[in-house]
Amino acid sequence: MRFITILLFNFCISFASILSLNDAFHVDSKKYDSSIIINVKLGQDIYLYANKIKLYINDKDITSFLNLPPSVEENNEKVYFKELNLALPNLLLEHYAKKNLNQIKFEFQGCSKQGLCYNPQIWYLDLTHKNNQFSISKPYKQNKKSKENFNSQSEEGIIANFLATNNLFWILLSFFGYGILLSLTPCILPMIPILSSLLIAKSGNKNSKKHSFFLSFVYVFFMSLAYAIAGIIASFLGASVQGILQKPSVLIIFALIFILFALAMFDILRFEVPLKFQNFIHKKSGNKKGIIGIAIMGFLSALIVGPCVAAPLAGALIYIANTKDALLGGSALFIMSFGMGIPLLFIGLGLGFLKPGVWMEKVKVFFGFIMFAMTIWILSRIIATHYVLMAFGILGIFFSVFMGIFEKAFNAFAKIKKSILILVLSYSICLFLGGLFGSKDFLNPLNFSAKEKNQALNYHFINNLDQINQEIKNNQALMLDFTASWCENCKLLDELTFSDKRVIDQVKKYKLIKVDVSQNNNEDIKIMKQFNVFGPPVLIFFENGKEQLKITGFINADDLLKKLKS
């Protein structure tokens, strides 16, 4: 556990240069004889966007009447450094502050020169008008007039409100239920072969149900911890942590890790530490050998192998971003992720029934090929599809040979196994030939005349925030589709939902804009911040410039049609 503590400490240190919200923005107010002053002191290397500053009195926008101080340019944007003072003259207040107790809403957004932007900030101030005198309260974050601080039209908004208004027990119980439901989606599938392979490699002669279940629990625990930490960081900084971890360089490193694990399954590589350290670990951990490796893989798998954003996750992120209650939001994320990992715990129980024997060598080889397959799957996010087909074809051919396709079959079981291997070999050859000649269809690799799907929908690819805002303003009906090359649920949306003729007919009235956030660069982060998107897939429907519907995560054709017609 000391190693894990050091690992988490280093993880936190890597973000130490990014200031917390309290250090980045200090909002205060002062009353003078002729005016009210709202002051924002900015931390080192922090700046505010001039066009994001908004001020409302009783929901009336008075921004255009403000006498803003001179700004400077940063990345072609007008910004403010160090400090911003907004003066509200009494004459202006007398015109708009009609009540004895008025509310001022102050909005702004800031970024760090380190390259990350903070969530849009909303502060409230109570303005009292009595005996022709104005007085102002200290700024506060929670709108006292309403608990409905989140967009209740979206699923994540409803979930964020639930977090804000319910007690801890029901929140955690509900999020555990959300996690179990998410375990039935493709989010968790890639982790099943990873955990199975690790258990086979780590268990050795200790194939007891108790030991395998314990190792599965460690994997799921650290998977959940990764989701919670990444979620909290994303909420505070407004960056897609999973998107950062989908960079080609990161994926290649992780693919190499899988290759090393695969080679270890074939006994080509052996990960052994010096005997002195082995004896020390044995004394300290007893029968818990291998826990550190399982924990690290669980932590990394959650971030790189299974990036999956759904409404419960987005709702928790919105709640944390608006309330800064990282303890409750992080606990909800952890419990939800643990619910997602419940099927993985049963894998440990299942492998506990395996008894050591010569045949276990075949099992190790089988999972070695699974590790190679996971390597190709990870790299499929950054290489062309026809190369992926060729790679899987080659892997299938080697798999058939290593598993004994040319061995003699003396009994019924051996004949069944050999028949299955012949089918695998045949399909693998088709995959290789299909990829070689440019096919991209896994189900029909020899159909070289197949056309790209979804040609019926006319998408426009835009990755510029100003242009997107202009399109929303100029079009009566518009749909934003946030996607990424590494997002499996995005591919399912295109292949299953948007290939349905009923959906195609329904969305043709919208101008369709795809926002590809695969690169997770500064512009992508700005766009995601603007629309409160923490990760793809997200669909946002606008009518007459106003958001009407927001859907986070995969949705099937029937459910999408119901939401569009409601």
From TrEMBL:
According to the lineage, what is the superkingdom?
Answer: Bacteria
What is this protein's name?
Answer: Protein-disulfide reductase DsbD
According to the entry, what is the taxonomic lineage of the organism? Bacteria, Pseudomonadati, Campylobacterota, Epsilonproteobacteria, Campylobacterales
